[in-house]
Amino acid sequence: MFFCLISVYSQDTTHNHSNKNTLNVDTVYFQKFISADHNNQYINKFSPDTLTRSRFLWYPAKSLENIFDNLPGYYFKFHDIGQYNPLYFNGINSNSTGILRNGIPITDPADSSIDFNLLSRNEISELEFTDGYGNNTFGFINTINVIQRQLFQFKPYTEISFWQDRYENLYLDGNYHQNILKNLNFNFGITKHSYKGHYSNSDFDRWLGRFNLTFAPSNKLNFFAHLNYAKIQKGINGGLNSALVNMGENEEALSSAAPVINSDFYQIKERFDVDFGTVFFSGKNSLTKLQLFVNNSFVKNRDEENRSNPNGIYYKSNRLGVNYGILLNEVLKFRLTSKIDLISTTEGVYIYNIYHNDIFDPNHFINYTYNTGKLMVKENIDLKINKLILSGYINGYKIKNSDIAKFNGGVKAGYNYYFDSSKVFTAQAIYDNVYNYSSFKLSFRSGVNYISSQIYYHKAETENSFKGINNSLFLRLFKFDIDGVYSFNLTDNYPTLQYFHRYFFPKHYGNISFAWHDAAFKNKLEYKIGVTSHFWSEYFEGSAQNSLRIPANATFDFYLIGKIGRATFGLTVENILDRIIYNSAYYPFMDRGGFLNALSRFNITWNFFN
After folding, report:
1. Mean pLDDT of the chain
2. Strand ranges in 249-314 using DSSP code E only, listed in sequence order
3. Which of 91, 177, 304, 368 could form a disulfide with 466 if both were Cys (CB 3.0 to 4.6 A apart)?
4. Residue 546 — very low, low, confident or very high, per pLDDT cuts 50/70/90?
5. What distance in Å separates the CA atoms of residue 538 and residue 534, rounded to the nearest whole number?
6. Beta bridge partners of residue 286, listed in sequence order
């Protein structure tokens, strides 16, 4: 009963609209109590807010981060392909958003970065969002939970994705899933992504590998093991040198010969993540998960005279970060009455971190190492009373050899009123004491049509308050789709912000798409033809004392996306007006291109053996 309940409320609620033939669940029906089942991976058990893979395959996204252009409240600043592209939520710094995979943050133990290049599109089944509710064990204000694809079936499942973009931007991603025995399953994936780069020192190359194993000897006991490997090399040019380039002039800013800030600085990252454990089911109402994990990251930064455009500066560093951890999770489910259900989630994590850094320049050598341990705990209660869902959590942490223990907490209430099976009204309120974050959201869904509006407020430790309104709309008129998000940032104290407080944000930003959505060839081909635009008003990037004006602007792209049989394909032409566009300091979007470069992007995802 509980699993049925969860499945009802775990729909694609971030965008509650559907395509005609893309409603097939991106998984299989698992045997009862298989730990690969997504039900055990959601942070919010009763009402997870998710974006499914079958949805984002229909976005004309250039990179994984571009998916967030279509989600209310998120603002993605483009720093070129493969770079550390910062993602902000309601004005909250990107480092305050945690990205979890298999319940463990992918924050780098060597340099504390959050790198979306560690993720592959093909590995994702769903993305779960907490919408500023900090009910995670690790203390993040906002959370993005990556739920990996782990199909549990006898028939082989094989899928390949291929993307080709301008300037030799090539992406190949493959997955394979199959049961070895009745209760033993594995899946394997590999990703290769390379990019020559439009500007000097903007090349990028990565290899990703992943292997997941699930063994379920009985309905009471499951074992799992996950392995993820990444090797990433990127040129880090710092963007265009605005002292030498007129950022508002197409011919200068879009020229591949435009001077950059650093012509030969690059980084090599190698990362190896392993986690394994067991899930024990007690009856039908509880589970216990024990998980051990290791995150090992080695980062090499180099500014040397061995690239094609040396700049006369010598610097290098070697950073090693290792996390050893153990996680214990206990979920208790109770049916109090026929209309009242309760879930208690208790989780404790201990992480021991080893950090080492060697820094070299012509005159100095710095070497230092430190080790630290951190204990983190969380208790979360979810209560469903008919159409009302109430949640509350408290989490805390204590650092080894420190007498200070810090605790945070929050509450959330959600109400769903069903007019009939296709029409539902939803209200949701959140308060979290981290940054005094609060929000209130109203939404209405009727069939595939959806509208929502959310107000939010939070006050950072720097005493600067942020407030705004996020809106989302999907409307289908005959065969014409309108899909858009719009955010209005009400914060008006930008001139008073100190350089160390926050990055600036536009007053207005969002994304809108107009598309013709139809089927052809006796419904064998489903397709969308449309245009999309990401827009923002003027703001300033950088510190209050040294900032660059980001002018109001909008992208304008054409796209065609289709699905025929087991293949989903897309064609995109970017920047069809051929204008200079940038939404972060010194990193312009690509030009439209000419002749062979006019077709910006081709992609296909093909399930060819299932």
Report:
1. 85
2. 265-282, 286-303
3. 91
4. low
5. 14
6. 282, 332
